[in-house]
Amino acid sequence: MSDAARFASRTGETVTAFALGPLEARYYPGAVTRGTDNVDYKFINGFVDVGELPCRTALRQEIATRTVALEDDFEIVSTNLPGFNRRLEFSGFWHRPTRLSRWVRTRLVAPEAGRYPFRLAICGGVHVFVDGVRITAFEPYTRNEVQETELVLPLAEGGSDLVMLVEEMAERDTNYFAELTWLGAGTLFAEVPGNADGQSLEMLMDLARAIRPAGIVCGEGDNLRLVVDRPAETAVTVEAKVRQSVHMRHLPPLFEAVSTLERGGTQVDFELPRDLPDGYHELDIAFSLGESHISRHIAFALLRDETPHQLAGDLAARKKAGLSYLADKGELRVGRVLARLALGLDLDDGDHAALDDTLDAIDTRRDCSDFVIVPLLWIYGEYREALPEALRTRIEAAILGYRYWMDEPGNDAMWFWSENHVLCFHIAELIAGRFFADSTFTNSGLTGAEHAALAETRLERWFDAIEADGLAEWNSAAYYPIDFIGLLALQHFARDGLKRRAETVLDRLFTMIALHAINGVAAGTMGRAYDKELRAGPLSELAPFATIAFGTGWFNRGVAALPMFCAGDYRPPDGLGDYVAPPSGKAVCAHYVQGYGRAAQLALYKTVGIQLSASIDAAPGAKGHQQHLADVQAAGHPMARVWVNHPGADDPWGSDRPSYWAGNGVMPRAGQYRNCCLLLSDLGEAPRLAFTHAYAPLAVFDEHIAGPDWLVLRSAGSFIALKATGPIEPVLEGPGAGIEHRVHGKRTGWAITVGELAGANLSDVAALADKTRLSLDDNSLGLLCEGPFAPALRLDCRDGLFVAGRHRPFPTTSQTPDIGWLAAAAVPASN
């Protein structure tokens, strides 16, 4: 095919040019069995080896005897080309056990006819056919764990057709990909078959690589403007679809529109409907030109008012304001129903739809249904007389038929192992058991009283662990709201000891929120983070908790737990106000420990204008997960955030754990002294991505100045100074344009310093950054920092932080923050 798009792979590179068939997905639960209770209450950040679920057992039984015939005429629905990822990747999230399969094809053209070596890495299983002949099947099916094999493919003169069936068994968050690496000598070409012409495909792929929102955030009245780097060679149809949040993905999109990227144009606009809620929205984009189609997945932030609201009145008044907002604008989930009932409102059509969806989630045991059964139990316990009798009967049947723990019969993919899920399952079991003490629960065969007794014992173990170790998901804007689901329900319904223990943990959480929130934004180092919490802090579900607790911030449509806070009588501790907004000229410093095995040693420096926090010595050199280890948030703009990480995946818009921006592929050594944080990364001999990078969205800062190995930024009256051990290279095109700043190398170091300008100019800060010397010490494998911002600092790979030559071990082993006050660090105007 002379007009086919041809893509080269050199030795050691992957083949990513494939025509894609439809993604086939079908419910595949396997036999109902009882699992083994293997939770040890030692919570860690990362994937837990939970054993094999019934769906995967059934799959293994099937593939042991099946025969896979080549499907050579499958419909081509899309194209995957080089640019996003070195893998052919279809990863995602499925709430129920789902069998996935997809046929893909390409044409491989080798330097000459022969048998050529390849390496094939897979999450799932794959069948490989060349020119209609089955070559191999590689089917390890190890859940979310990459397996590799080497194979030899016979390639004919002029090219051979490669067809693969790529499969996986999805159990909630699922890594699903194939990575085919060319090991032969010379250049291999891949030609994409189909009716699409090569020139069109290459142009569309160039657009898809570059497409991104024009701004960091869309405001009131803004269109969603998407931009590319090079003008379109011809007019291209662009379809945009805003998807629901992850727990509502099965419902229709929030927004769909079609526009045209005109010939010679570099931007395309979509008018956003006024009823599209504020949020960090996932966006599916499809580019079309004749028979050529390319799909892309990105995201954008919508915050119509960038100025935080100041809520009047006391806590009770702020809670009522929160309920009113959620009753009117909350997401159509069970929390909205709770808000409306708490205000004495009648159920409307949205409430009935939310309750129907909630009951379906519980009855079909969708993953995360433990998050919605707890507020449903609150509704049943407080407002069941306001429910129609038929609905009340359905709710009772759902409660009595639920699977409350892994050792009960089931064939679902619910996640029982992380600290937030463990808590919600146990609290749901306790409350349900007490509500229906004399009833028999149909799934387990136990009485409610027996369930309640089990749950109480299990909850005691959970609290023992959290009180001893702290939280593996420390300060997480994604998971504190889930903890609140359980803890607020327990505080509301439990008796005596468990109630007091719930209140103790709630007090700790709100103290940490007060320390790490700044001008209404929930920020800081986190045990588990996603892009949406990092790139849009004011839009996270945690942000409104700070708004109501402390009076400044934003509401949003998140209803997972906020209605429970607003409808209940829990009050955060008094005296947290100065931590939220330190007095002018003062800085609050805090140190404390979180997580099993002291996984996180947390340091915080915060003034009214700027906040720096880090997790110290968090397993440097190890493979990371979702730990967000160093974070800066400025008060001058809600999106004025900076952090440094090692990307954990190829695609800047991907959802891997770790992803490109959230978490670390390889964990760094970290140290923090007051307002200065050092990060030292050793990526090993053959890192997948040999650079570290800073996220610093220049457009939301008031001013910035860049030097060869430094970058300084101003937000209102505060500054951030970044210094690196090598040249800081700004990314000028694609998704990283204007936000990404890279330092290449297998060993890199960064220094992050924050402070108040106090009358100085940013050029004064730039001069100080230029005078700072940051270097790698090859003898001790350490990082040296000398300059005017701080005393001489050394971050030793083995022994940690040294200040002015003296070892400075982390000052506490306590979960209770050790809090002190300093004069705010400033830049004298004379500098």
Low-confidence stretches: none
Rg over CA atoms: 27 Å
Let me know the largest β-sheet. 9 strands, antiparallel
According to DSSP, the number of beta strands is 47
Q: Tell me the count of domains.
A: 4
Shape: globular
Helicity range of the residues?
10-25%
> Structural class from helices and strands?
alpha+beta
- Quaternary structure annotation: single chain
**Number of helices in the DSSP assignment:** 16
Overall pLDDT score: 95
**What separation lies between the terminal Cα atoms?**
67 Å
Taken as a percent bin, the fraction of beta residues is 25-35%
Question: How is this structure best described in words?
Answer:
The chain is 24% helix and 32% strand. It is an alpha+beta fold and 831 residues long.
Any chance you could write out the topology, listing elements then pairs?
Layout: E1 6-9, E2 14-15, E3 18-20, E4 24-27, E5 33-34, H1 54-63, E6 78-80, E7 88-89, E8 92-109, E9 114-123, E10 125-130, E11 133-138, E12 147-155, E13 160-174, E14 177-182, E15 188-191, H2 198-210, E16 212-213, E17 224-227, E18 236-242, E19 255-261, E20 267-270, E21 279-289, E22 292-302, E23 309-310, H3 315-329, H4 334-342, H5 349-363, H6 369-383, H7 389-401, E24 409-410, H8 419-435, H9 448-469, H10 480-493, H11 496-516, E25 517-518, E26 521-522, H12 531-535, H13 543-550, E27 552-553, H14 562-567, H15 577-580, E28 586-594, E29 600-606, E30 610-616, E31 630-634, E32 641-645, E33 669-673, E34 676-682, E35 691-695, E36 703-706, E37 710-715, E38 718-724, E39 729-730, E40 740-744, E41 747-756, H16 762-771, E42 773-777, E43 782-787, E44 790-796, E45 800-803, E46 806-807, E47 818-823
Antiparallel strand pairs: 1-15, 2-14, 3-6, 3-8, 4-8, 5-24, 7-14, 8-13, 8-15, 9-12, 9-14, 10-11, 10-13, 16-17, 17-20, 18-19, 18-21, 21-22, 23-27, 25-26, 28-29, 28-47, 29-30, 30-31, 31-32, 32-35, 33-34, 34-41, 35-40, 36-37, 37-38, 38-41, 39-40, 42-43, 43-44, 44-45, 45-46
Helix pairs in contact: 3-4, 3-13, 4-6, 5-6, 6-8, 6-10, 8-9, 8-10, 9-11, 10-11
